[in-house]
């Protein structure tokens, strides 16, 4: 998957499909990843959407972003808070108006190849 995406790291937290909750344990899991990888920007799903995991994940990412900058949560890792969170639409949603659009035409086949790595998709 990493090779197909052309990224240096990709991690799965093992959260169950259709059962993601924004609770302290997954929040800390994600905050630990943020601290370890130290991204400047985090991209997550849109805050609205039809799949419950996408809506909850948007909230979870926002809260883990905040928690990753707190010294008392996971004190064994140096705190780090990314500069920005971007919310991405995964399909057309008439009730969401994007603030910017990125043309991925050049990388579309790479995206499709990455999606095909998942049997469930």
Question: Can you describe what's shown?
Answer:
With 121 residues, the chain is mainly alpha-helical. Helix content is 35%, strand content 8%. Helix 3 (52-67) links the parallel strand 1 and strand 2 (84-88). The chain is globular, with a radius of gyration of 15 Å.
Q: What are the secondary-structure elements, in order, as H or E?
A: HHEHEH
Q: Write out the strand line-up for the largest beta sheet, numbering strands in chain order.
A: 1-2
Alpha-carbon distance between the two ends: 14 Å
Q: Kindly state the percentage of residues in helix.
A: 25-40%
Please give a quick description of this structure:
The chain is mostly helical and 121 residues long. It contains four helices and two strands.
Keywords:
globular; 35% helix; two-stranded parallel ribbon
SSE diagram, text form:
Blueprint: H1 2-5, H2 24-37, E1 41-45, H3 52-67, E2 84-88, H4 108-115
Parallel strand pairs: 1-2
């Amino acid at each position: 998957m990493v090779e197909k995406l052309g990224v240096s790291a990709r991690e799965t937290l093992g959260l169950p499909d259709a059962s993601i909750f924004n609770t302290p344990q997954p929040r800390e899991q994600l905050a630990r990843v943020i601290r370890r990888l130290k991204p400047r920007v985090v991209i997550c799903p849109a805050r609205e959407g039809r799949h419950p995991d996408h809506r909850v994940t948007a909230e979870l990412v926002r809260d883990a972003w905040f928690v990753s900058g707190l010294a008392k949560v996971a004190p064994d890792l140096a705190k780090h808070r990314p500069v920005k969170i971007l919310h991405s639409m995964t399909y057309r949603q008439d009730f969401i108006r994007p603030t910017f659009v990125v043309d991925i035409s050049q990388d579309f086949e790479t995206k499709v190849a990455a999606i095909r790595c998942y049997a469930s998709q």
